[in-house]
Specification:
181 residues, alpha+beta, Chalcone isomerase, seven-stranded antiparallel sheet, 6 helices, 11 strands
Length: 181
């Protein structure tokens, strides 16, 4: 009888929720800068028909509006969970510089992108890169679970989020998925 009661109580206990895409599972919530965030969506980054990574976007509240996700000066996170066997630092940086080049403030932010690229390294399937933004502090870059450094400025955060969620993302499929579409 006691085991039956315990089983009944456990069935009502909250469970950790998660979302999955292409064999990658990310938790439904995260904490950045002391604020609870929700998983807004997951998107798949493909290049030449190869699945490279699953991108996850965490925000204080869900939105399908890319401009809002970019412009809101609130704690937020982007996670890249790699599924391709090997992606070099140079390949990652090339994508960031391509995204920056499509923005009007490219020249003013190039130094911050140079810093970002200095923090990155080669990644393999199973590795993650996280970009955590905290207002007044900046964007902390974490590679394979190790915080590499923080880049100050909401201007950098908006530019970096524009790479993923702006008018010219790496792929529309990635953007749409991260925006919950």
């Amino acid at each position: 009888m006691r085991n039956l009661m315990l089983a009944a109580l456990l069935s009502f206990a909250p469970t950790a929720l998660a979302a999955s895409l292409s064999s990658v599972t990310l938790p439904d919530t995260a904490t950045v800068g002391g604020q609870a965030l929700v998983l807004n969506g997951l998107g798949l980054r493909e290049k030449y028909f190869i699945d490279v990574y699953v991108g996850g976007l965490y925000l204080p509240a869900r939105t399908t509006d890319g401009a809002k996700a970019i412009s809101d000066d609130v704690p937020k996170r982007i996670v890249m969970a790699f599924i391709y066997s090997h992606v070099t630092k140079d390949q990652l940086c090339e994508t960031y510089y391509e995204g920056l080049a499509k923005q009007p403030e490219a020249a003013a932010l190039k130094g911050k992108y140079d810093t970002l690229c200095g923090y990155l390294g080669d990644v393999e399937a199973g590795d993650q890169v996280s970009l955590d933004y905290v207002p007044g502090t900046g964007t902390t870059v974490t590679v394979k679970g190790s915080a590499k450094g923080t880049i100050a400025g909401a201007d950098f955060m908006r530019s970096l989020w524009t790479v993923y969620l702006g008018a010219a993302p790496p792929t529309e499929k990635l953007k749409k998925g991260m925006l919950g579409g």
